From TrEMBL:
<keyword id="KW-0175">Coiled coil</keyword>
<feature type="domain" description="B30.2/SPRY">
    <location>
        <begin position="113"/>
        <end position="306"/>
    </location>
</feature>
<dbReference type="Pfam" id="PF00622">
    <property type="entry name" value="SPRY"/>
</dbReference>
<dbReference type="InterPro" id="IPR043136">
    <property type="entry name" value="B30.2/SPRY_sf"/>
</dbReference>
<dbReference type="Pfam" id="PF25600">
    <property type="entry name" value="TRIM_CC"/>
</dbReference>
<keyword id="KW-0479">Metal-binding</keyword>
<dbReference type="InterPro" id="IPR003879">
    <property type="entry name" value="Butyrophylin_SPRY"/>
</dbReference>
<keyword id="KW-0863">Zinc-finger</keyword>
<dbReference type="InterPro" id="IPR058030">
    <property type="entry name" value="TRIM8/14/16/25/29/45/65_CC"/>
</dbReference>
<dbReference type="Pfam" id="PF13765">
    <property type="entry name" value="PRY"/>
</dbReference>
<dbReference type="GO" id="GO:0005737">
    <property type="term" value="C:cytoplasm"/>
</dbReference>
<protein>
    <recommendedName>
        <fullName>B30.2/SPRY domain-containing protein</fullName>
    </recommendedName>
</protein>
<dbReference type="InterPro" id="IPR051051">
    <property type="entry name" value="E3_ubiq-ligase_TRIM/RNF"/>
</dbReference>
<dbReference type="InterPro" id="IPR013320">
    <property type="entry name" value="ConA-like_dom_sf"/>
</dbReference>
<dbReference type="InterPro" id="IPR001870">
    <property type="entry name" value="B30.2/SPRY"/>
</dbReference>
<dbReference type="InterPro" id="IPR006574">
    <property type="entry name" value="PRY"/>
</dbReference>
<keyword id="KW-0862">Zinc</keyword>
Length: 306
């Protein structure tokens, strides 16, 4: 009988502990502090070890309502965890995370991203990752003219008076953006006229000469989509793939999931039609790159985060 009393006491303690955890869980779920939520929620979802050991009992003996209450409390906690876990994606997805990336010595650019578990589908989803890019004058081919705060670039028939620079493309009508992209997710849009290529490249892409080492998308240091009135093709490492059924658009959206090792190109609309997706293993910061046939404009997006 003393042993039974001891078990009853332990069960009552377990019920009290479960009630305490239930109260803590409800308090965590109601908090507006997302960091506090993330830090505490996982531990509360782990059920505690039972205080009562497994023993052989008299089959005629029953704890009655006490055992049923403990079991109900466990099931109640499990049910809360399962329901609330489905809400974590939405809660965490709205929490911005920032990382500082080095650029040009001591200058740094704030690059936004978010902890998220779902791939964007609608244009509004993509705009959550929008970033403000600018063309780098030091990389611009000699016939390219920058304007509108280095967000529009136009090709002229005559060479411009640019100073020599080791990062300037001297063989192809190309330009890179200033901002390094690394670690998270980024999205930008560009409008174009004339033949045009858009993609990403490592800083180490060759700038000199008219060969595959310096052509955007035609080496192992860059990925690009070539667009023209005749259609699209995807380029990487001397392999070009025609995309005859790709949707046409004068505005192209580029979605870089650096951590996911993908870069995707979309015909911009509310439904965002995929043109092509590259899968890779990125090892260094990437830079948005463009081949300019006539003109390219980096679109100002409403949800730009920096």
């Amino acid at each position: 009988m003393l042993q039974a009393d001891s078990y009853v006491e332990r069960l009552e303690q377990e019920i009290m502990e479960l009630q305490r955890r239930d109260a803590e869980l409800r308090q965590i779920l109601e908090t507006e502090d997302n960091i506090h939520f993330l830090q505490n929620f996982p531990t509360l979802c782990v059920a505690p070890e039972p205080m009562v050991p497994k023993v052989l009992m008299n089959p005629q003996f029953s704890f009655g309502d006490i055992s049923k209450t403990a079991l109900d409390m466990k099931e109640h906690l499990d049910d809360i965890c399962k329901k609330e876990l489905s809400k974590i994606t939405k809660t965490v997805g709205e929490t911005p995370v920032y990382i500082l990336l080095p650029r040009n010595g001591d200058k740094r650019v704030k690059s936004p991203s978010r902890v998220d578990f779902q791939e964007p589908k609608t244009r509004n989803d993509f705009l959550r990752y929008s970033c403000r890019l600018t063309f780098d004058p030091n990389t611009a081919y000699k016939e390219l003219v920058l304007s509108e705060g280095n967000r529009r670039i136009t090709r002229k028939k005559t060479a411009q008076f640019y100073p020599d620079h080791p990062e300037r493309f001297d063989g192809f009508s190309q330009v890179l953006c200033k901002e390094p992209l690394s670690g998270f997710r980024f999205y930008w849009e560009a409008e174009w006229s004339g033949e045009f290529s858009v993609g990403v490249a490592y800083r180490s892409i060759s700038r000199k000469g008219k060969n595959s080492h310096s052509l955007l998308g035609y080496n192992d240091r860059s990925w690009s989509l070539l667009c023209s009135d005749n259609g699209y093709s995807a380029w990487h490492n001397k392999v070009d793939r025609d995309l005859p059924s790709a949707p046409r658009a004068s505005r192209i959206g580029v979605y870089l999931d650096y951590a996911g090792n993908t870069v995707s190109f979309y015909a911009v609309s509310e439904s965002m039609e995929l043109i092509h997706k590259f899968k890779a293993e990125f090892s260094d910061p990437l830079f948005a790159g463009f081949g300019v046939g006539s003109s390219v404009w980096l679109c100002q997006l409403k949800n730009t985060s920096y």
